[in-house]
């Protein structure tokens, strides 16, 4: 079991929460919004998170840089240049892996804070090795249908 310290979520008493070590950021993060009936599914989602491939990390970093620079540009600030795409991760702090439930396949839905958008933070949604959504946190999960008008930096 990858999820540690499982307990009832005080904000959503019908669900559980726990913690998982996220090696990409070298820290424990919350795992939220899963139920006792779906602990195996939650653990499978956590497994995807802790085993992110270098290719997936690269795609997430590139999308995060696009989001960062779009926000900075919109605020009239100079865009940031990164010698190594992973440098953007120093400006990001993962907060929680949101499980929800799907009987389809495990997925990653991550809430993060970031230096360039302190109010809305950032959201990563990954489904079947595809980065589906990277932008401000809107509660858009990996199984949601995306509107073409959504500000989504997952695609170059």
Give me the secondary-structure topology.
Blueprint: E1 4-8, E2 16-22, E3 27-34, H1 39-50, H2 54-74, E4 92-98, E5 107-114, E6 122-127, E7 130-135
Summarize the structure in words.
By secondary structure, this protein is α+β, with helices and mostly antiparallel strands. The chain has a domain at 37-135. The protein has 2 helices and 7 strands; from the N terminus they run βββααββββ. The protein has helices at 39-50, 54-74; strands at residues 4-8, 16-22, 27-34, 92-98, 107-114, 122-127, 130-135. It has a 7-stranded mixed β-sheet. The termini are far apart. The model has no long low-confidence stretch (mean pLDDT 94).
Overview features:
7 strands, alpha+beta, single chain, 30% strand, seven-stranded mixed beta sheet, 156 residues
Major β-sheet profile: 7 strands, mixed
Helix/strand class = alpha+beta
- Which parts are unreliable, with pLDDT below 50 for 5 consecutive residues or more? none
Ends distance: 36 Å
Instruction: Enumerate how many helices there are, as a single number.
Output: 2
Protein name: DUF6985 domain-containing protein
InterPro entries: DUF6985
Short description:
With 156 residues, this protein is of the alpha+beta class. The protein has helices at residues 39-50, 54-74, and strands at 4-8, 16-22, 27-34, 92-98, 107-114, 122-127, 130-135.
């Amino acid at each position: 079991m990858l999820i540690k310290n499982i307990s009832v979520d005080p904000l959503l008493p019908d669900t559980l929460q726990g913690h998982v070590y996220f090696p990409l950021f070298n820290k424990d993060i919350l795992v939220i919004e899963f139920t006792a009936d779906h602990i195996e599914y939650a653990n499978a989602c956590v497994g995807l998170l802790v085993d992110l491939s270098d290719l997936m990390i690269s795609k997430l970093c590139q999308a995060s840089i696009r989001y960062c620079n779009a926000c900075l540009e919109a605020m009239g600030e100079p865009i940031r240049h990164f010698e190594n795409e992973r440098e953007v991760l120093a400006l990001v702090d993962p907060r929680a892996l949101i499980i929800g439930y799907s009987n389809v396949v495990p997925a990653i839905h991550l809430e993060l804070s970031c230096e360039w958008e302190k109010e809305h933070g950032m959201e990563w949604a990954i489904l079947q090795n595809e980065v589906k959504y990277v932008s401000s946190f809107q509660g858009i999960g990996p199984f949601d249908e995306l509107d073409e008008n959504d500000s989504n930096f997952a695609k170059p």
